[in-house]
Design a protein that fits this description.
Pfam families: Fer4_20, Pyr_redox_2. It comes from Streptomyces yanii. The protein is α/β, with parallel strands linked by helices. About 35% of the residues lie in helices and about 15% in strands. The protein contains 19 helices and 16 strands. The chain has helices spanning about 5-10, 20-25, 35-45, 55-60, 65-75, 75-85, 90-95, 100-105, 115-130, 155-165, 180-185, 195-205, 225-230, 260-270, 290-305, 340, 410-415, 440-445, 450-470, and strands spanning about 145-150, 170-175, 210-215, 230-235, 240, 255, 285-290, 310-315, 345-350, 350-360, 365-375, 380, 385-390, 395, 400, 435-440. A five-stranded parallel beta sheet has the order 3-2-1-4-16, with helices on one face. Strands 6-14-7-8-9 form a five-stranded parallel beta sheet. It is globular and about 65 Å long.
Length: about 475
């Protein structure tokens, strides 16, 4: 193990963030560069090397956390990187973006602050990139089989890399102009700089993966024709249909889905635009939705110079400690202050939007809301609590309802859907159409990046076995597996 007394002698210490007043003036990542390395070895030494490491259960990838904690404590960064990559294709993504269910399941977390697993992970991978330990791993021989992957988010990229390394010829189709899916255009630069995606893409290119951008399967290429062209197809198109808010005034100018707003801000950082067509500059901004996407909208609005930012959530404010019905090692619903919330704005809980108010030109000017409460399992409005707040830009960040069916992909393949509207699949991630598989949010529904990568790796095994009759690729999860929650 690492330090046998580390969990007794060393307190939890996390990555330092730059001052809020400084970081809202740029789009760089919020953390102080290099602040983790001086402390991370001791933090890794807090790992108890438990007899039963429940962090494995919390992580759908089955990350070998005690092993790479031990290597990080000993500052054997090469060995730590090898152990990290044994289960995770893209630890620099998860180390920045995953909410770390592994930490919620950490045994030390029963009565002490958990090990900073996420910080250790990102330290290992950043050190590996800096030292040249991350290199292309092309296959020793080609199988002669071809695979098309639809979608270049974390699930699609993970499946593509696994299948390429298994010797298959893989082409990734992406409807946007750049590879990365939601990683590219849904995650703001201040949460993850896109250079991390770019260097992974270059690694994958060097391994042999092909990429086709600005090609939407279902519109630009008929799905049935694509199936005939390739020996197998993996659908990793995500759950990109945003949940709408059908209230009076929804049609007003200035009311947008989060995924209309965030990609434009990212395109400014890519150099495609000088100014975003949907900007918060000088406006009173209201973000509807209390999750991570909502927080991304908050942070983006701060950087665009919003006059005010208010985030609304229909659910009650979570507590700061575990509820009795969310015991360790489940992933608890806790009050979370992200870096975006540290930068300002107001958070309002237990409210529901009744309607939007516009001016004579059809631009949104205000939002009307009412307080709500749960009674007998039903959400009810509280009389006399209605109020009006200024709103010149509203972003709807209430989650996603399923994969896109408007482009014809589902119909052209002839795919069956499950009761939740996701693409149905069997134990090998195969759909009802021979040779067509599904991974990530398209089959699971809206989920976390760590589940997407796990699904991509698992689906790759199913595809490999379909093509060759057997597979040595790992499959960390089954399609029916769910988060460690109650």
């Amino acid at each position: 193990m690492a330090d046998p007394k580390g969990f007794l002698t060393t307190g939890r210490e996390v990555a330092k963030t730059r001052p809020a007043g400084e970081r809202v003036k740029d789009w760089n990542e919020v953390y102080v560069p290099g602040s983790l390395l001086p402390i991370i070895s001791k933090q890794a030494g807090r790992c108890m090397d438990c007899g039963i490491p429940f962090c494995h259960n919390g992580c759908p990838l089955g990350n070998l956390i005690p092993e790479w904690n031990d290597y990080a404590y000993r500052e054997d960064w090469t060995a730590a990187s090898e152990r990290l990559h044994a289960t995770n294709n893209f630890p620099e993504f998860t180390g920045r973006l995953c909410p770390a269910p592994c930490e919620s399941a950490c045994v030390l977390g029963i009565n002490q602050p958990a090990v900073t697993i996420k910080n250790v992970e990102v330290s290992i991978i950043d050190k590996a990139w800096d030292s040249g330990d991350v290199t292309p791993q092309p296959p020793e021989r080609l199988s002669g089989k071809t695979v098309a992957v639809i979608g270049s988010g974390p699930a699609g990229l993970a499946a593509a890399q696994q299948l390429t390394r298994a010797g298959h010829t893989v082409a990734v189709y992406e409807r946007a102009d750049r590879i990365g899916g939601l990683l590219r255009y849904g995650i703001p630069e201040f949460k993850m700089e896109k250079s991390h995606i770019n260097r992974r893409i270059e690694q994958m290119r060097a391994e042999g993966t092909k990429f086709r951008t600005e090609v939407e399967i279902g519109k630009d290429i008929d799905a049935a024709k694509l199936r005939r062209r390739y020996d197998a197809v993996v659908i990793a198109a995500g759950a990109t249909v945003s949940r709408d808010l059908p209230v009076p005034g929804r049609e007003l100018n200035g009311v947008h889905f989060a995924m209309e707003y965030l990609p434009l801000a990212n395109k400014v950082q890519e150099g495609d635009l000088t100014v975003s067509p949907i900007s918060a500059e000088g406006k009173h901004v209201v973000v509807i939705g209390g999750g991570d996407t909502g927080a991304d909208c908050v942070g983006t609005a701060h950087r665009q110079g919003a006059a005010s930012v208010t985030q609304l959530e229909i659910m009650p404010k979570p507590g700061e400690e575990r509820n009795a019905n969310q015991p360790w090692p489940t992933f608890p619903m806790l009050y979370k202050v992200t870096s975006a919330h540290e930068e300002g704005g107001e958070r309002v809980y237990s409210v529901s939007t009744t309607h939007f108010e516009g001016d004579e030109d059809g631009n949104v000017q205000a939002l009307h809301l009412v307080e709500v409460e749960f009674k007998d399992g039903k959400l009810e409005q509280k009389p006399g609590t209605e109020r009006r707040i200024p709103a010149q830009l509203v972003t709807l960040a209430m989650g996603f309802t399923g994969t896109d069916q408007a482009n014809g992909l589902v119909q052209q393949f002839g795919l069956e859907l499950d009761e939740r509207g996701n693409v149905a699949r069997d134990a090998d991630f195969a759909t009802n159409v021979g040779g067509v598989f599904v991974a990530g949010d398209a089959g699971r529904g809206q989920s976390l990046i760590v589940w997407a990568i796990a699904e991509g790796r698992s689906a790759a095994r199913g595809v490999d076995r379909f093509l060759t009759g057997a597979s040595a690729l790992p499959a960390p999860i089954r399609p029916t597996d769910r988060s460690l929650m109650v």
